[in-house]
Write a structure and sequence with these properties.
single chain; 387 residues; alpha/beta; Purple Acid Phosphatase, chain A, domain 2; six-stranded mixed beta sheet; 23% strand; globular; Mre11_N; DNA replication
């Protein structure tokens, strides 16, 4: 069976101030063409179809167009909700849409109920594991402690239990939206840390032939059977080095996996340039970035006059301007933002406690802080789902 694996469309999202809807529509057209020309038997979309729980009307219209075009090809499509989606909204009408070959899987309770497709060699069971917010699903999966690994492991136990009841030789594909150990994150992904841990081990997916992952925006191979497709378009300058693509997976009669990366159309290259303003305006080597979307980091010791206006004269698609004067680490003028760069909310809070009282929090206090952050994050998720 030939499977096209994609994820993280984030329909409705902008890139800085650039409206990406046109580029997203071009991607949908590319997807449909790929399905038709490559003889794809099934499409899987591993979450974050939309960028937010209540997407703009234009994004909903684009999604509707995508569904009609995929259904028109007669090629089954399996989709799950991600942490950016409203599972309830995305899943509206799922029962009816099933009849058109579009299978929306947004309910955690249905993790062990697959979409079963057939090819010349027998059945392939597709299990949809939507994004599982630990605080919201721990009771459903009867886990003692709310954590990503525990709820995902419990969901996979249901998958393996169902698979064990099926005819021998049934192959299996799991769609999941999670942060798996070994994956590389980017700035455009929403933090899903719970209990101080966001990542789950790849071994959670043992027992299935292929795990089609979503959430991380870079295309990545965790193992030969566990892969991220990445987002089809860039959504932050941290993705400058990404090659935007989809995975074309050939699932053999014996469950073997052969994977091929297919590039996605990207509207414009990304570039990060760094240096003093006059150097950036004069450096011949930077000519190759003149048509790219640019993030410029200025290292001038004193902020120059009208830097954006001057940069745009050479780099007309400059979208982001950062000031980082070259200073020694002990310089008192080093910015607060630079001192906090790379530190988690938990670490910042612990540093604040140490600053206020002269000693950092003990283990009990660290646990209290972490529980507070987890509660806030869970409350935010509940509000997002309820909107």
């Amino acid at each position: 069976m030939r499977i096209l694996h994609t994820s993280d469309w984030h329909l409705g999202r902008a890139f800085h101030r650039v409206n990406m809807l046109g580029a997203q529509a071009e991607f949908i057209g590319h997807l449909v063409t790929t399905v038709r020309e490559r003889g794809v038997d099934a499409v899987v979309v591993s979450g974050d179809v939309y960028d937010r729980a209540v997407p703009p009307l234009a994004a909903v219209e684009l999604f509707d167009d995508a569904l009609h075009r995929l259904a028109g090809l007669g090629v089954p499509t399996v989709m799950i909700s991600g942490n950016h989606d409203s599972a309830r909204r995305l899943g509206v009408g799922a029962g009816l849409i099933d009849r058109a070959g579009i299978h929306l899987r947004t309910e955690p309770a249905a993790c062990g109920t697959p979409v079963v497709l057939k090819d010349a060699f027998g059945d392939v069971a597709f299990y949809g594991l939507p994004y599982l917010e630990p605080a919201l699903v721990k009771d459903e999966f009867e886990v003692e402690k709310a954590g990503h690994e525990s709820v995902l492991a419990a969901a996979m136990d249901r998958v393996r239990a169902d698979l064990a009841t099926r005819q021998e030789g049934t192959r299996s594909v799991v769609l999941a939206h999670a942060f798996v150990t070994g994956g590389e994150a980017s700035d455009s992904e929403r933090d899903i840390t719970v209990g101080g841990v966001a990542a789950v081990p790849a071994g959670v997916f043992d027992g299935v032939d292929y795990a089609a992952l979503g959430h991380l925006h870079g295309s990545q191979t965790i193992t030969e059977r566990v892969r991220y497709s990445g987002s089809p378009l860039p959504y932050s300058f941290s993705e400058t080095e990404h090659r935007k693509s989809m995975w074309l997976i050939d699932l053999g009669a014996d469950g073997s996996v052969a994977a091929q990366r297919l590039d996605c159309p990207v509207p414009r290259a990304l570039a990060r340039i760094r240096g003093e303003l006059e150097e950036l305006l004069a450096e011949p080597e930077l000519a190759r970035h003149e048509e790219a979307w640019v993030e410029a980091t200025l290292t001038d010791p004193v902020r120059p006059a009208d830097p954006m206006a001057r940069l745009v004269e050479r780099f007309p698609h400059t979208l982001s301007l950062v000031f980082e004067p070259e200073r020694t680490p002990d310089d008192p003028d080093v910015s607060y933002a630079r001192r906090l760069a790379g530190r988690s909310d938990q670490q910042i809070a612990e540093d604040f406690v140490a600053h206020v009282r002269g000693a950092g929090p003990d283990e009990r206090e660290q646990a209290v802080l972490q529980d507070a952050f987890d509660t806030v994050r869970a409350d935010d998720t509940v509000r997002e789902v309820a909107r």
